[in-house]
Amino acid sequence: MPPVVLVAHGSRDPRAAGATRALARAVEAARPGGVVLPSWLDHTEPGPTAVLRELAAAGHRDVVLVPLLLTAAYHRRVDVPAAVAAARETAPDLTVRVTDVLGPVAGAVDDALLAALRRRLAEATPGGYDALVLAAAGTRDPRARGSVGRVAAALGEALHVPVRVSYASAAPPAAGPAVARLRAGGARRVAVAAYFLAPGLFHDAVVAAAREAGAVAVAAPLTDVPDLAELVLRRVGSAG
């Protein structure tokens, strides 16, 4: 059984690193005898290159690397391959199988991702809702925004409510205006689904803005939802 390396974006907020470590423990617990190690692209050590080099030095020749990313934007297309290439400069015999991101793949939204979003919403909104905002971190990549839109569409179809996308950075609309627009259109109970893998400043900003705009609830990030560990395991399994 090859070791698994999880690669998170990284954050200055220490809660994010703690959440990633907890996810690594949950995935490892579901793989008896397997090793699951966290790493971060920025702000937190160790980085994926260092972890891969350590595994190679310990004698491993095959590793599965899972990007803890919700879109296949710059970090997946550039940063992750660069980290793998840097590790293989000193460990040329190391095979690193990089999985798909946790968001949609070839336009398909994994049912485990939808289950994670729905579970968080159920925890946050016992009184129900008649419209949703799917709040994401944000990206300038139009393909990545399209991926977020597909998740919003799938969530709306599953829950039979209108869903608008909002972004915490890089692209409009922000969470507050998205909530306000739904309320102006007649929605009385607007909730916010958090398309975030870990807590941090972006999620905090979404909570504040959405509540100020009249949202009845904002769901927590996804990291410690059991369905997310299942999704990671599926990505590992798909690596062969």
From TrEMBL:
Keywords: Lyase, Metal-binding. GO terms for molecular function: lyase activity; metal ion binding. It comes from the Bacteria. PANTHER family: FERROCHELATASE CHE1, SIROHYDROCHLORIN FERROCHELATASE, CHLOROPLASTIC. This is Sirohydrochlorin ferrochelatase. The lineage of its organism: Bacteria, Bacillati, Actinomycetota, Actinomycetes, Micromonosporales.
